[in-house]
C-alpha cells in the first residue's frame, strides 16, 4: 500500500533507485572478488579470462505517463549517431592511414551519397532474413547529417547522425558500410538505389563500436498528453542539455579512445568482408586485397600486427551492439 505522504511517482522513483543501488552494490562486490582472485591466480593465466562486471546507471528525469503509454510503440522516431575515423573514406587508390585528412570534396561526396537514404525505401538488403515483399522492410529516414571533422590524438573523426522512424537489425551499420564503400570507390554510385530493388545484395556490416542510440522521440505523445494537466511532456530541454553534455564528455571520448587503441575500423577496412562483396574496376584493388593482407600475415608475430588481425576477427563476431530501436 502506498504511503499517504508519498505520491505514486515518488514511490516508483524510490523503487527504481533502490533496485539500481542494489545492482551497483552487487556488481561492485563482484569486481572486488574478481580482483582478489586475480591476485592469487597463476601469473601465466591469460588476463582476458578474468571477468569483471561494470554496471553504471544515470537517471535524469522520472515522469508520470498515461496508462496507454508504451516506450516502443509510442516512439515516433529514433536518432542514432555513428562515430568513425575519416580515413574510412580514404579513396582506395590512396594510402589509408591515421594521418589521412578528409578533403572538402570527399566530405561533400559523403553528404551526397548519404542523402540517397532520405525518405521511404525498401531496406530489405540492409537487414537479415527480410524479404523484398515484406511490408515491414519499408522504412522512413527523416535526416542524415555529417558533422565537421575533429582531431583527437592526431586521428581525424566525424560523426554521422541518422534520424529515422524505426530501424531493423543491422540496418544502420549496413547503411554506413555502403556509404564507405561508395566513397572509397569500392562500390558503384548506384549501389544504394540497386539495394532498394528486389535483387539480393549482400551488404556487409560496419564495425559496431561507433554506433550509439542518441535519442528517442515522442512528439505525438507530448502533443496529446503533454499539456492535459495530468501528465508532463516527455521531451525536456533541461534533460536534453544534460544528456548531450554526458555524450560529449563521456560517450564520444570513450569510443574515440577505444577506436584509436583497437583500430577496429582499420582492421575492418582491410580484413572485413567489404572488399569481397562488390565488383571492382580500380587497379589498386589487388594491392588492397592481396598484398597488404599477405604482408601483415607474415608480420603477425609483431604485437601491433597481431592486434589488428585479432580486431578484424572480433568485428566479424561482435554482432550484439545493434540498434536498440530495431523492431525485431
Q: Helix and strand layout, with pairings?
A:
Layout: H1 8-40, E1 77-85, H2 104-114, E2 119-122, E3 138-146, E4 150-152, E5 155-164, H3 171-184, H4 191-195, E6 211-217, H5 219-225, H6 237-262, H7 264-271, H8 285-298, H9 303-317
Antiparallel strand pairs: 1-5, 1-6, 2-3, 3-5, 4-5
Task: Describe this structure as you would to a colleague.
The structure is a single chain. The relative contact order is 0.14. The protein has helices at residues 8-40, 104-114, 171-184, 191-195, 219-225, 237-262, 264-271, 285-298, 303-317, and strands at 77-85, 119-122, 138-146, 150-152, 155-164, 211-217. It has 2 domains: 8-49, no CATH class; 77-317, Pseudouridine synthase I, catalytic domain, C-terminal subdomain (Alpha-Beta Plaits, 2-Layer Sandwich), CATH 3.30.70.660. Strand 4 (150-152) and strand 5 (155-164) form a beta hairpin. The two termini are 38 Å apart. It has 328 residues and is α+β, with helices and mostly antiparallel strands. The model is unreliable at 1-5, 19-38, 44-53, 279-295 and 320-325 (pLDDT under 50). It is globular and about 60 Å long. Strands 1, 2, 3, 4, 5 and 6 form a 6-stranded antiparallel β-sheet that branches. 41% of the residues lie in helices and 13% in strands. It is built from 9 helices and 6 strands. The longest helix has 33 residues, at 8-40.
Give the gist of this structure:
By secondary structure, the chain is α+β, with helices and mostly antiparallel strands. The protein has helices at 8-40, 104-114, 171-184, 191-195, 219-225, 237-262, 264-271, 285-298, 303-317; strands spanning 77-85, 119-122, 138-146, 150-152, 155-164, 211-217. The protein folds into two domains: 8-49, no CATH class; 77-317, Pseudouridine synthase I, catalytic domain, C-terminal subdomain (Alpha-Beta Plaits), CATH 3.30.70.660.
